[in-house]
Amino acid sequence: MRALVLDVPGSTPQVRDIPAPEAPPGGVVLQVEAAGLCRSDWHAAVGHDATVAFPHVPGHELVGRVLSVGEGVSRWRVGDRVTSPFVCGCGHCQWCEAGQSQVCPDQTQPGFTHFGAFAEQVVLHAADHNLVGVGEGLPAEAVVPLGCRFATAFRGLRQRAQLHAGELVAVIGCGGVGLSAVMIAAALGARVIAVDISPRALELAQRHGAERAVLTAGLDPQASADAIIAATGERPAVTVDALGLEATLETALQSLAPLGRHVQIGLFAAPPVTALPRIIGQELSLLGSHGMASGGYGELLEMVRDGRLRPQDLVTASIGLEEAGAALMAMGDAPPAGITIIRP
Questions:
Q1: What letter does residue 93 receive in the DSSP assignment?
Q2: Percentage of the chain modeled with pLDDT above 90
Q3: How confident is residue 338, by pLDDT bands cut at 50, 70 and 90?
Q4: Which of 46, 102, 114, 296 has the most C-beta neighbours closer than 10 Å?
């Protein structure tokens, strides 16, 4: 099969033929219909994740059809159209049995623990526990972002921060996951402030639910926080760092209202220094969101199917494998506005 392969961290990805995978016990092989290009793929590609072995095939957001099933799989058949959370739980530990597979200690992740979806085929483990059927009605552009961006933002806002209608939310960093958070927060009835250094990203955020936009190009974290507060005259009850820089985390924490909830989605290249005195003094909650277990997809899929959420509207580019290598390596310096879909 054809796949996008990186030989060593930071190397130029190459499209080449590699052996097609076989379905492992309990797992499946999917024929990849489409995959999503995410900044997390860039972190893996340049070596920020010590668990990633090279040579490596990235790609953790996907939709496809079951091509073959391994021994012990009972819920899925060849031809089923499915997606999966990017964190695949083992299916039998205490966390998986409690419906919290996103923190499974024995998790697998396509594009991280094993070859991913920037290929014609991909393996998914513990299929009966992890796969999510999506049927035939939804376009690939609506399904692919559900594997990581929308699932992570949905869990962060809905389940971790327990966002209420009418609350003020500041989303800092309006790439793919940030725009997902903007769209989800607006659909949940929140008031949304979009924060970014890119006018194009802010334009997309306002088109998809943000009431206010704050351009922070050239501002330090405190000035950015002041600009967020000035936008509405109040501090947000919830902040989301969708980028993962020390400056964006500091901006979020400095702008939060007392007793506010911060949702950290963006990954860091290095451990950040945080505003611990303010976290303590204002009793702020610092919440992580690491995807969502397959059992949590019901409400999210319902919102996509009935049109309250339209992930496909955030897709701004569709490319092939030949273009994917350059697009992947550009994510570090210039993440694209919106979501890029790869069709192997």
A1: S
A2: 92
A3: confident
A4: 102
Q: Report whether 224 contacts 251 (CB < 8 A).
A: yes
Which distant-in-sequence residues (6+ apart) come within 8 Å of 277 by Cβ?
Answer: none
Q: pLDDT-based confidence at 162, cuts 50/70/90? A: very high
**Token digits for 286?**
């610092």
DSSP 8-state assignment for residue 147: G
Q: Are residues 18 and 75 in the same domain?
A: yes
Distance (Å, whole) CA 253 – CA 19: 47
Element (H, E) at 185: helix 176-187
Asked if 61 and 145 touch (Cβ cutoff 8 Å), the reply is: yes
Nearest CA to 24 among 117, 107, 123, 122? 123
Q: Are residues 248 and 119 in the same domain?
A: no
For residues 325 and 336, give the distance between their C-alpha atoms in angstroms, rounded to a whole number. 14
> Using the 8-state DSSP alphabet, how is residue 25 labeled?
T
Are 159 and 276 in the same domain? yes
The owner of tokens 């552009």 is 141
Structural domain of 75 = 2-148+292-342
Environment class of 322 (CB within 10 Å of its CB; exposed 0-12, middle 13-18, buried 19+): exposed
Based on the fold, state whether residues 10 and 116 are members of the same structural domain.
Answer: yes
Give per-residue pLDDT as tens, 24-39: 999 999 999 999 999 8
The answer to whether the CB of 41 falls within 8 A of the CB of 328 is yes
Give DSSP secondary structure letters for 215-259: E-TT--HHHHHHHHHHHHTS--SEEEE-S--HHHHHHHHHHPPTT
| Cα–Cα distances in angstroms (integers) from residue 212 to residues 20, 145, 182, 228, 266, in the given order | 48, 24, 11, 9, 21
Q: What is the CATH number of the domain that holds 250?
A: 3.40.50.720
> Which residue from 52, 120, 68, 61 is spatially nearest to 88, judged by alpha carbons?
61
DSSP 262-307: EEE-SPPSSPPP--HHHHHHTT-EEEE-----GGGHHHHHHHHHTT
Per DSSP, 108 falls in state B
